[in-house]
Amino acid sequence: MKKLNKRSKSNEKGFTLVELLIVIALLGALIAGILISLDPLEQTRRGQDTALRNTASEFFNALNRYYATKGTFPWGNNTTFSGQTLNSRMSDINTLIDSGELKTNFMQRAGSHVNKIYITSNTPTDLSVCFQPVSKSMQKDSLTIYDMNGSSENASSCKSQTTGSSGTNCYMCLR
């Protein structure tokens, strides 16, 4: 007669369903915590701000190179304007492209940013290229103290100059 060898539960290898469910729940909680701390929306906004800043810098530097070469900005010495979008200055952009200061595909690479970047020239030698950051980190940056015309008269009310979440959304300008 054969003896049946019954195994006791303590000798079985593997995990019980309850143990597996506990581990899955803990992993889910960890993943949720990581996603909350990384804040994907804020990361997207930072990326948008970086792209805006790069486009504004490229245009600002092209204008300064043009000024260094020609002694004037593309719009001439007798023209002043405030808070015009990059898109509204197409003749100046074309002049910068024709002179080799901007790449020919500048407008394609700039995309929708051309409506979010503002240019001001109050005197023949004054230039401000500004944009309004959307990410919390760039709104709190110490350089975000301007209005769209490049003026820092109301800087004390900007989020970068206040504590907590109070303050207004100001612009970052290249001057």
Written account of the structure:
It is built from five helices and four strands. A hairpin with a 6-residue loop joins strand 2 and strand 3. Strands 1-2-3-4 form a four-stranded antiparallel β-sheet, covered by helices on one side. By secondary structure, the chain is α+β, with helices and mostly antiparallel strands. The chain has helices spanning 17-38, 40-70, 90-98, 106-110, 136-139; strands at residues 81-85, 117-121, 128-131, 172-174. Helices cover 41% and strands 10% of the residues. It has one domain (44-174).
Please tally the helical runs, counting DSSP H or I stretches of 4 or more residues: 5
**Biggest sheet: strand arrangement:** 1-2-3-4
Overall shape:
elongated
Instruction: Please tell me the overall pLDDT.
Output: 87
**Major sheet attributes:** 4 strands, antiparallel
Rg measurement, Å: 28 Å
Distance between the termini: 98 Å
**Which structural class should the secondary elements be placed in?**
alpha+beta
Total domain count: 1
Low-confidence stretches: none
Percent strand: 5-15%
Kindly state the percentage of residues in helix.
40-55%
Beta strands, count: 4
Order of helices and strands: HHEHHEEHE
Topology overview:
Layout: H1 17-38, H2 40-70, E1 81-85, H3 90-98, H4 106-110, E2 117-121, E3 128-131, H5 136-139, E4 172-174
Write a concise keyword list for the protein shown above.
single chain, 175 residues, alpha+beta, four-stranded antiparallel beta sheet, 5 helices, 4 strands, 41% helix, elongated
Quick summary of this structure?
The protein is of the alpha+beta class. The chain contains 5 helices and 4 strands, in the order ααβααββαβ.
